[in-house]
Each structure stands twice: as structure tokens, then as C-alpha cells.
Amino acid sequence: MFWQTNFPEYQGPEKIVIRRYSDFVWLRDRLFEKYKGIFIPPLPEKSAVEKFRFSAEFIEMRRQGLDLFVNRIASHPELQQSEDLKTFLQADEETMERLRSQDTGYFKKKPADLMQIFKDVQSKVSDVVLGKEKPVEESNPEYEKLKHYIFELENHLAEAQKHAYRLVKRHRELGESLSDFGKAAKLLGACEGDALGKAFSELGMKSEALSVKLQREAHQLLMNFEEPLKDYVRAVQSIKATIAERANAFRQQCELAETMKLKEINLDKLMLTRSDKVGEAEIEYKELKAESEDSTRRFETIVRLMNEEIVRFQEQKTLDMGIAFHNFSKGQARLASSIADAWRTLLPKLEACSSS
Amino acid sequence: MMGSDNQVFEEAHVYASREEMENLVLDDDNSSSKSFSNYRSATSLSPPILVTPADSDPLLAPPPYRDLRNPNAPDNNGNNQSYIEPPSYADVIFRPFDETNPAVNEINGVESSNQFVDSPHSSTSPVSSTSSDYIKITVSNPQKEQEMSNSLVPGGNTYVTYLITTRTNIPEFNGSEFSVRRRFRDVVTLADRLAESYRGFFIPPRPDKNVVESQVMQKQEFVEQRRVALEKYLRRLAAHLVIRKSDEFKLFLQVQGKLPLPTSTDMASRMLDGAVKLPKQLFGESTALVAPQEVGQPAKGGRDLLRLFKELKQSVSNDWGGSKPPVIEEDKEFLENKERMSDLELQLSNASQQAEALVKAQQDMGETMGELGLAFIKLTKFENEEALYNSQRARAADMKNVATAAVKASRFYRELNAQTVKHLDTLHEYLGLMLAVRSAFTDRSSALLTVQTLLSELSSLQMRAEKLEAASSKIFGGDKSRIRKIEELKETIRVTEDAKSVAINEYERIKENNRTELERLDKERRADFLNMLKGFVVNQVGYAEKIANVWAKVAEETSGYANENS
């Protein structure tokens, strides 16, 4: 099953297009391919549970997530220039469908890339088999710290998000029990009669009214507190993907550098022996050198971009969480206040009962 | 600022469990709520409205709050302005159920060493404490003792006794303070004897025997649970103005050594006794009639099987027989009340259940809020340790505020809940009492059945006598054997007439008891329920205010972000 959303375009005149969830996935994958080193904004998850997928709540959460996704891309200095973004925002549905089927997503690679992957795997396996060290990794202490930070951060955030989700549930449960309690109080009041009966009745009604408020707050909590936390977790996971990309790039660079050295040694040998293979070897060597330089450049770009991105990320997250915290605390304060107000109105009535 | 925070986070790191949150000393500008352990003493901002006179209801709105120390103090650090206009209930709510109301708590003497056992209607029971009588009972010091009698099991049968201490100024008790040791079996005896002597009264039900639990639970836990239950039971008995002066109760509380009340023998031995008597009764060798004094007791618990059968026959004839029984329950008011009590029991049961559910929901809320707070504290610590950028430090500070608020709110929820439990306990108490009501109504109907049975018997005896007389008058000179039989029959009729009078008196007595007890129950219940509602509501208001304040502060601190939100 699929479903669709509308989004107006933010650059130039307004435009509305219909996009499916898989279109967003396509955009994300393309950006991830092209802009290595940049933290691509995260997408809300595909839902595993069929039934849940059509609930109003889920759709609202997903819409919020997709909205954030597109806006973040549009406000990123480099990503906003992406051709793919322009296509995404403007193309008609047929074009999108065609592009999707040509999918060059992360998991579907071009033949050359596939070869590279095989080579990587091969070398890894042979390294292990030969008892060599584990695959080559950067030995940059600052970067190590960053990686450690990101991995730890995900754990902490996931825990916080788990409790936030439970808190939403608790609000719902408290709401339900207040509703049930209110009903029981009203019935008891009907049985008692007189002033006392009225008191129970009023209590019951207040209880039921508060139940509604709690359900509403539960929804707010879900949208404005739990979702941002989940979004934070997803963002961290996106960074992890970038970290993996950087590791790949680094490895590639190292391997090419090594291969190049070997070729250089070989070339020198050939030149010494004045072999007629020198010409061929020279050409190969030049090609390899170019590739190696390319690879190094790619890697250095990733490093540079990541350094910029991490600063942006931290600043953005402080803002995002600041807003989430503000909404959370405002919501809780408002809820508690209205609970106090509601119960308080009962007190003079209860007073009147006892004096009668 | 950072230095003092480290202690907090050290503790958060070491004590991962929820319980340890109690010990967390949260760095706090607003001294209105420190850590739980010094919460009560730290209420430096509470106005000294504490000492309320015993006869004014402390749950009422407090007099307007004036900051006595500094009426014109500007709001420099924001905390002296605590909840000013209108006066906040937050400051009042902790009074009624604390130790700080000794005057109110002493009356009726139902103050407990363990404050959470305090029954709600103890602190504000204007109804039952009309005089200055008081009686205070404490159950303590459980001890294992050995059964002295010869037993098959070597090492003997052990049982637990409890020390029951009474302090009272009621003149019917000879003395003002005394202690005895009793075992649970004695309590069962007391309950049974009271049930016999006070038919028609709403006698508080005794604690269950809990045979299964006594085997399954940990010994110490079980004994403690039982101790608490016994204390509650004895205090309820003491609160009943008639029962507290009963011989049975006095004997139980005062007489040292063995309890001088007849024990309830097993059903088995009763039935055995009765089975032995039955053939003799049927063949007319022992008296086939009910001794008048026994009529004052229900047939069911006794040894007289024949009587039991007769009454059973009568009740069947009442239900299925064609003719109306000789006398019936005609009291309309009673029948209405019975209906009402039955309805009340149903609604109470429902309300009691929902109250339990509400309490659980509140508890869960508090727990989860606390866990959320802890998670954020860990995050804060983490960010601070690894911080490379100012944005991280700022975020850590924000998180800390949220975490602190969440932990505080969690504590408030838990305190709220502890109070809620005490208040709503009234529902459970009265639900338990409905059992006593039902049994009192049963006393009435079984007494009525006895009267009906006797009346039926009387009328059939009289018919027999008439027939015999008619038959014997036809024989000239008298029929010696028949005349003898008529004499015996007339004797039987006389005795049965006596029994009938006793039974009718008993029935009327029980009816009157039912009536007065119903009145008392209605009055007390209304007062107690009203207090329960007030207490519950005040509690909710007070804590909701406190929780609102805690979050309002964080909202304030994070308000900068709101302006940036497009």
C-alpha cells in the first residue's frame, strides 16, 4: 500500500506536487551518494505494522517527519543546490516513478561499485585469513573521540526516547483510569443521594473532564517531545552512516596508495631493465596515480565537510531540543495548572455540603 | 556551578536504581522543595498556619498567606513569592495527615505508630468523638511460643502471640493502661462471641485466617501483615460505641493468660453432638422442644439438629408453600434500606476497584517521570564530559533543568499517591463494613425464621391437642392414656409458648439494633465520605500546583527557544 503527501515548493513561485514515501527515500539515497561527508537529514521510519500505518496519529507523525526532512535539506547551504532536490520538488509523478525504478539507491550499486565492494570484502577476508591486522582505520585521536561520542550518544538518546514514549502511555493510562473513576463516583453519588450524592457526582464529572485533558496532553507529548527525541536518534544514526562512508573512503585511499607504491616499484624495476613493458606500465602508473589522488581528495573532502557538519549538528540540536524542552515543560505546566484549577472549583461546593 | 553539579551526577552514575533517586540531592535555587528526606523541615516558605485548633477543619481554606518575615520583599530570586494570591492549598495540604495535628489525632485515639496505617476517619471524626472518651490500642511485638499440650510432633506446635496494649480513660475499664498477649485464635474467638452477643449490630469484620498465605509467604512478612490487620480490627471495634464496652471486648483486652471466652468448636464436633441427640429427640426420649434460652441464638451454629431441620422446613414452606407464613417482614422502611445497602455495596465495590486502578496509574506516572529524569541526568553528564562546543554545554544545561524538574515531579507524584491511598482507603473500609451489614440483616431474618417456625409448631401442637381432646371426650369415663398424652401436650405447648415469647423479643431486639445501626452507619459514612472527598481534592490541588510550578520554571528557562521557533 502507498500513500501520498503534498508539499509546496519553497524556492520561486509556489508549487504543489504529490509525493510518495518512496520518493523521499529516493531523494535521501541520491543525496547520500552525492554528498558524502554531509549528514543527510533523517527520514521517519517505514512502519512494520500494517494496521498502525493508517492511524491518524501515525500519519501525522510521518508528515511532521517528512516536512522536517525536506525543510532541512532546503536550508542546508550545499544540499539545497542539489539537482535531485529540484527534481524532487518539481517533477511530475510519472517522472518520479521512472526515476525510482532506475533506483541507484544505497543498496543497488553500479557494476564498478560492486567490484569495489567485492575487492573490499576480498581484502578483508584475506587479511583475516592471513592473520593480518583488522582493516585499516584512521589513527586520529580526535576522530576516535568523535566516533565514541556518536555511538554513546545514540545509546543515551535511545533510552531517553524510550522513557518519553512510556510517559506518553502513562498519560493515556492515567486519563483512562480518571475516566473510569469518575464514572464510578457518579454511580456512587446516585446511590447516596442528597448533598453527598451531589458531591460525588461533581467529583465524577471533574474526573471525566480531566481525563480528556490528559489524553490531549498525551498526544501533544508524543508530537512535540517524543518525536523530536526520536528524530535526534535518527540524526545520530545518519551520522553513523557518514562515519561508515568516511571509513570506506579512507580504506580506498590507503589501498590505492599502496597499490600505487607497488606499481611505482615495479615501474622502476622495469625502467632499470629497460623492458619494453615500460610504456604500458607508465600509463598504468599514471592512471593509478590520478585515481589515488582522486581518492585522497574525496577522503579529505569528507573530513572537511564532517568537521563543518558536526558544528552545525551540535548547534542545530541544541536549538531543536531547546524547543522540545520548552514545549514539554510548557505542556506539563499547563496540564498541572488546569488539573489544580479543576479540582479547586470543587472545594467550595464540598464545604457547602458539610455545613448543610 | 559545575563543581556542585558533579556530586549530583556522581550519585546518578553510581545509583542507577530508582530507589536511589530518593537520595539525590538536587542542586536547586528554589528552596521550596529539597530532597525528600528533608522536605518536611525545609518548608521554610510555608506560613506558620500549622497549628490549627482541633475543632476547626484543617482541610478548609487557610487564612490568607502573609509573608511574615518580609511583607514588602521584592521578588529578587523568585522564590519568596511562593503561591501568593490567592492562597495556595499547596502549603496547607501536608498538615492534616502528618504528625503535626496531635490534638485531632488523639481524639478517638486512633493514632498509629506507623503513620501510613492511620485510617482516614481518625483524624477528623467529629461524629464518634463527641465526649472526651478515648481508647488507644496498639498491637506489637510478635513472639513465637510453644504449645504446651502433648503433641504428636516432637518440638511441639509453635504459634505467634502479639502484645496488645490499651490506653483508655473509659470508666467501664478498670484501669487506664494494660497489656495482654493474644494469639490469632483468640481473635477468632472474640469475633465469634461478639457475633453471638450482638446480633443485629454492624460488627466490623475480623481479619481473614489466610491459611494459604501463612504457608506461602515469608514468615516475617506474614506476621507483620497480620499485626497490622489485627491493630486495624481492634481499633475499629474500639471505635464502635456499644461494642467497645462489651464484656467480650473488655475481657479480651484486660485478662492476663488464657482468654476466658468459650471457644468456637468445630462444625464437625457440633454436628457429631447433634447427630447423637437426634435419634433421642425423634423417639421422644429427650426433650423434643427447643429450650427457651437457646432460642435466642440462631439455629445454624448450634447443636440442635432437629431445630435446624424444622427451621429449614419452615423456610422452604415460606418460599414454596401455598399459604402465607404466620408473620412476615413488613417494615417498609427496612426493606427500602436493605435495597439501598445492597445497591451501595455494589457501587462501593466498583468505586473501590477504580480507586485502586487510579492509584496504580498515578504510581506508574511517577515512576516513568523519574526514569525519564534519570535518563536525562545521564545525558547531561555525558554531554558535559565530552563537550567540545558551547552548543553542547548549553544543551547540557537545558537537559539538566528538565531532568531536575522531572525528578522533582516524580517525587511529588509519589507523595501525592501515598496521600491518595490514605484517603481513598475509606472506600475500602466501608466496603468491608458492608459485610457486617449483610450479616446483621441475616441475624434479623434468621430470628424471624425462628419465630415463624415456633408459631407454626405452636399452631400444629394446638391442633393436635384439640383433636385429642375431641377424641377423648367421646369416651365415657375418660381415656387414661389419652388424658396423659393431653397433659404432656399441654406442657409442651406451654414451653413452646415461652420459647415463642423469647424468640419474638429477640427478633424485636435485633430489629431495633438494625435500625439504630443503620442510622449510625449513614451518619458516620456521610461524614467520612465527605472528609475523604475533601482530603482527596485538596491533595490533588496541592500537588498539581507544586508540579505546575516546577515545570513553569523550566518553561521560563527555555522560553528563549520559543521565540526562535518560526
Automatic annotation (TrEMBL), chain A:
Protein name: Sorting nexin 1
Top-level taxonomy: Eukaryota, Viridiplantae, Streptophyta, Embryophyta, Tracheophyta
TrEMBL record, chain B:
Protein's cellular compartments: Cytoplasm; Endosome membrane; Golgi apparatus, trans-Golgi network membrane; Prevacuolar compartment membrane
Any one GO BP annotation for this protein: seedling development
Biased composition (Low complexity): 32-41, 70-80, 117-132
Residue ranges annotated for the PX domain, each copy included: 140-259
Region (Disordered): 25-84, 111-132
Keywords linked to the UniProt accession: Coiled coil, Cytoplasm, Endosome, Golgi apparatus, Membrane, Phosphoprotein, Protein transport, Transport
Designated name of the protein: PX domain-containing protein
Organism: Citrus x changshan-huyou
